[in-house]
Amino acid sequence: MAFHDRFLNGPQLRTNLLDTHIDFNSIAFVLMHYQLLKPGTGSRRANHRLIGQVNFVILTVATLAAVWLASERSTVSDYGDTMAMLGFWSMAAFVYGTAIMGIRTVRSGDYAGHCIWMIRHAGSMWGSFWLFRVMLVVTGPLLRNYETASILLSVWLSAPLGILIAETFRRRSPPATMRRQLRPRLPPSVRR
Predict the structure, then answer these.
(1) 62, exposed or middle or buried, with CB in 10 Å at 0-12, 13-18, 19+?
(2) Which of 9, 141, 181, 187 has its CA 20 to 30 A from that of 49?
(3) Which among 156, 10, 148, 152 has a CA at the least distance from the CA of 78?
(4) Residue 78 and residue 86: Cα distance in Å, rounded?
């Protein structure tokens, strides 16, 4: 109720910031998946780089809007006051920090490191979006008697758990060379 009331009866700037965060974060989320599915190898490298740069600008706008919105939560007791604000800032730091590390590694020529950091970034995005909501649904009824516990657990744990899950999947998946070997070889007539 507090969330709905803050945006329904709050200043227009707050609503605009929320819309900006949702719109830009959604675009960054979609572009992130495109980038992961179409890695920048060979002739696709320039296209991958351009989309990555555009996506980083979009992510920056989304994150700035989120940080600005989170700064207003320090006075909302229904969210957890300052602990909620700091938690949302930590979520933004995980999302943006993994993206920054991905950029730093690719600029140094470490393409394998870039891939690793961008998988972690995807995990932080998935955690901040989906895992955050799932945790609220699960912990909300369980922690009904503890005011703000559900939101604070979700805020503080969703992004790091998303990174941990992504890292676990990354470490357990076979390397790219092995995936190519496991892929069935089709006759040339079928490959075309």
Answers:
(1) buried
(2) 181
(3) 148
(4) 15
42 in any annotated domain: yes
Number of domains the chain contains: 1
Query: What does the alpha-carbon distance between residue 4 and residue 51 come to, in Å, rounded to a whole number?
Result: 34
Cα dihedral 119, 120, 124, 127, rounded to 10, equals 70
What's the rounded Cα separation, in Å, for the pair 34 and 13? Answer: 31
Is residue 70 one of the residues assigned to a domain? yes
Q: Is residue 63 part of a domain?
A: yes
For 140-184, the pLDDT digits (tens) are 778 777 777 788 888 889 999 999 999 999 888 876 644 443 444
Question: By residue range, what is the domain housing residue 136?
Answer: 2-172
Residue 190 placed within a domain: no
Average pLDDT (69-83) is 72
Say how far apart CA 142 and CA 1 lie, in whole Å. Answer: 18
Prediction pTM value: 0.80
Q: Tell me: the pLDDT tens digits for 105-129?
A: 999 999 889 999 999 999 999 999 9
The two three-digit tokens of residue 187, written as one number: 């006759």
In angstroms, the Cα distances linking 184 to 104, 176, 181, 190 are 36, 14, 8, 12
pLDDT in tens, 2-27: 555 666 666 788 888 888 999 999 99
